Amino acid sequence: MSEIRNFTMNFGPQHPAAHGVLRLILEMDGEVVERADPHVGLLHRATEKLAESKPYNHSIGYMDRLDYVSMMCNEHAYVRAIEQLLGVEAPERAQYIRTMFDEATRILNHLMWIGSNALDLGAMAVFLYAFRERENLMDAYEAVSGTRMHATYYRPGGVYRDLPDVMPKVAESPWRKGKDLARMNEWREGSLLDFLEAFADDFFDRVDDYETLLTDNRIWKQRTVGIGAVSPERALQLGFTGPMLRGSGVEWDLRKKQPYAKYREMDFDIPVGSNGDCYDRYLVRIEEMRQSASMVKQCIAWLRRNPGPVMIRNFKVAPPTREEMKDDMEALIHHFKLFTEGYCVPEGETYAAVEAPKGEFGCYLISDGANKPFRVHLRAPGYAHLSAMHEMAKGHMLADIAALIATQDIVFGEIDR
Amino acid sequence: MSSFSERNQPLVQALKHILGERISSMTERRGQITVEISPEHWLDAAWLLRDEPELAFEQLTDLCGVDYLGFGDDEWETAEATSHGFSRAADALGPGRFSWADRPESADFPNRFAAVVHLLSLTHNRRVRLRCFAPDEGLPVIPSLIEVWNSVNWYEREAFDLFGIVFEGHPDLRRLMTDYGFIGHPFRKDFPLIGNVTVRYDEDKGRVVYEPVEIEPRVTVARVVRRDSRYVDEKLEGTGQ
Fold it and tell me: Does the CB of A337 have a partner CB in chain B at under 8 Å?
């Protein structure tokens, strides 16, 4: 009688460590993974097809919902693709605002990652601390765009509006009063820039706190060192980008190599790992958070000194102000046309990529001259990473699967699109 | 072939020199090079692009399918607008406006399906876009690049799933995004935006059932192409990088 050894096991789609709706079919030899076959698409919303039936600006909000923990970076790629086709460029102040919010978004994303990664590997506390900081950045999102997550803030030709002069304060309630309230509002006395600066100054200590909890933690190292090691050659072959590629020791960052927005003016370093395992990728992301906080401060310094327009004055692409619209017939017509029909983009195709927190987020846009895109394709970094799951997981133990999903920083919004 | 900018000359020369006859056409738009390659040369061109040190495209960042059916069509003929009235915009069968029963017929459309690849060379810090049209519209077949760049695995599966492009030589060409047992290729232009079936839990049967879709196609804004000089003026078109 033949002995049956391997058995198949379903991991997810309802599993707290599956980061959403990942169904992973694992072929196990005892505790050891022989084959990992991710089944994705459970969150497939056909964003790319939906975008084909809508004017360009209507789809900016969909971009937030792709990688829903790095919202503005996704918008940035899409908006940049439209700007390239239109041949317009955002004013300098808008470029700085975009750079600042891209970096704030990177912190937002990495906080989510460090919290859930630690939680997946059994460390509860980090999650609570990370979410405390995230809440502040969410407030910054809300102050500037009106929503905590899905901002729709970047528009072709600039950003929707200038930074607010007053940072909204936390209101008094039976649960938030007295000293607590005063502490929460301490940073919120001035403008949004004051708030973000206070946050960024404080954030370096917070990153040190996370490092105290994890970097030399014996359990953390046991769970991450040597797990999911990828060589630089394989990382390139498998289409890795972002911290996944840099963790393997390849010094590649679009912000440095193909700068967009105002990254050319920024002073920052690219952290690079050496072993390509989960621990190195952890160290890379930790350092990225510090670099991002420093870049946020550099942008704040510039933005304080240089007031100016944040949207181009081309009414074929960007709407006129409300006052102009009420006063001027021509402006009213432009406003009406823009918000009913939208703008027509000249025929052509382009690929615009940004260094999103998870890696290269690209937008391939084909226009046939209409007011709606002919085809939008979104290149999500997590998609390439997850497709390498089998190669990374083979030969590891079942418990390491959670570490691998966490280190890939999987978000299903962008993988399934 | 169109003209090329100064910045892209080294890449253009290298591509011409190494790929030679394999290039069907090469164009530059907005500083980005697009190379069209026929399916016969698709695979050898890929090997050369990766391994020749002058090109050294180590990474395939992206592959996607494109369905060119209805390229350039609009739903709003502005030239004759005044003599007809404005209702016909809603009658046209533009993207998202039809159901499966009245889907547009694609009668003999040459070069309908294409696979578009974006390559990145870290050595030279540059990108190139490749396009390969599938010769047969009924059964579009393109050779798979999986041996050259392993990252193409899921991209080809996705293009097969959503567009029905068959990648010859792919070892595991299963559907990726759509439901188990899905029929059709949803990103084709003749596939309705509202879909065909809807899923719900049936209490009597005690299981999930599939039923024909109930919602009506609804698109709020007409698709308009304006080549009017007022809308595509020089300022918009000329300054592209």
Answer: no
Separation of alpha carbons A15 and A11, rounded Å: 7
What are B54's two structure tokens?
A: 């002058």
Q: Which residues of A touch B34 (CB under 8 A)?
A: 349
**Cα B118 from chain centroid (whole Å):** 12
> Averaged in consecutive runs of 10 residues, what is the pLDDT profile of chain B (241 residues)?
77 85 85 89 90 88 89 68 57 70 71 91 91 87 91 92 91 89 88 88 92 84 71 44 35
Which amino acid, A13?
A: P
Judged by a CB distance cut-off of 8 A, whether residue B96 touches chain A is yes
Q: Nearest Cα to B109, choosing from B128, B86, B133?
A: B133
pTM (two decimals): 0.89
The closest CB to that of A87, out of B221, B226, B240, belongs to B240
The answer to whether the CB atoms of A238 and B151 lie below 8 A apart is yes
Per 3-state DSSP, what percentage of chain B is helix, strand, and coil (rounded to 5)? 25, 25, 50
Residue A39: CA atoms inside 13 Å, Cβ hemisphere, count?
A: 16
Asked if B236 lies within 8 A of A317 by C-beta distance, the reply is yes
Tell whether the torsion through CA atoms of A185, A190, A196 and A201 is positive or negative.
Answer: negative
Are A370 and B238 within 8 A, CB to CB? Answer: no
**What ipTM describes this predicted complex?**
0.87
CB pairs under 8 A between A and B: 151
Handedness of CA A363, A234, A36, A68 (dihedral sign): negative
| Encoded tokens for A228 | 């999911």
A341 touches chain B (CB under 8 A): yes
